[in-house]
Amino acid sequence: MKRLNLFQGIGIVAGGIALATLAVPAANAAEPHDNLNATLWMQGSVEYAGVTMGAYQLAIAMLDKALADKNWTAIPGEQGGSHKDKPPAVILDVDETVLDNSKFQAWMVMNDTYFNSKDWGAFVNSVDSTPIPGSLAFTKYAESKGVKVFYISNRTGDLEEATRKNLEKYGYPMGGNVDTVLLKKEKPEWASSKKSPRRSHVGADYRVLMLLGDNFGDFVDGYKGSTAERHALFDKHKDMWGTKWIMLPNPSYGSWESATFSHDYKEPDQRGKKQGALSVWAGQ
Ligand SMILES: [Mg+2]
Asked: How much is the pTM?
């Protein structure tokens, strides 16, 4: 929800009463932005970089195990028949998995605004995203082992050219003559944010060794349940985490947040719903 910033707030007050009566301290005139700390952590901290580097080092170790085991697949229900003799592939999400969009998050913090697709499209077209630490080394290692690297993202098809440019800018493997950048709405059957049709598309021709993402939806279609339903689905797949499925951290946005307000971005009191979802100490 768009919140008024300091200057807009003063403008509204000044329209009705004399400025001299404005006694509200400046620090209270604007609400704090929900994403300040998460953006700072993701953009500037060695702690964040350490976590993503660790996740990708684990992915490299697991890739070697997966290559040696012909029965290994990260998408057992979506692989499409026998996968043993198919060439190997890995599937990565793009945003906050491969590309760091924290400049866009920082722009929203500093402009007291929240996500909308028009500003997001302008940011993507600026080709200003940077590599998530560890992602370049992992994808290049996979390519060196003959593993095809696919990117399945809910960036929309109209942003494909800019997305490719941004990946190419840093030398990510681009698949040669195979289309490895599979975006939402690129084909009529890929209209949904749910990624299983695109994973199945890859699984028809490749043995998928690993999924990497920062959002539950990068692994399962049932990510838009309640927080309790999400945990039940997470537990159902507990053997996958850290082996075939590698999760990257994203404290800035994701279905973990929207689960608290029933994934309804028109909900006017998102902060209240999030506060209501907290488990709170009773106090002294
Ligand atoms: Mg993502």
From this structure: 0.89
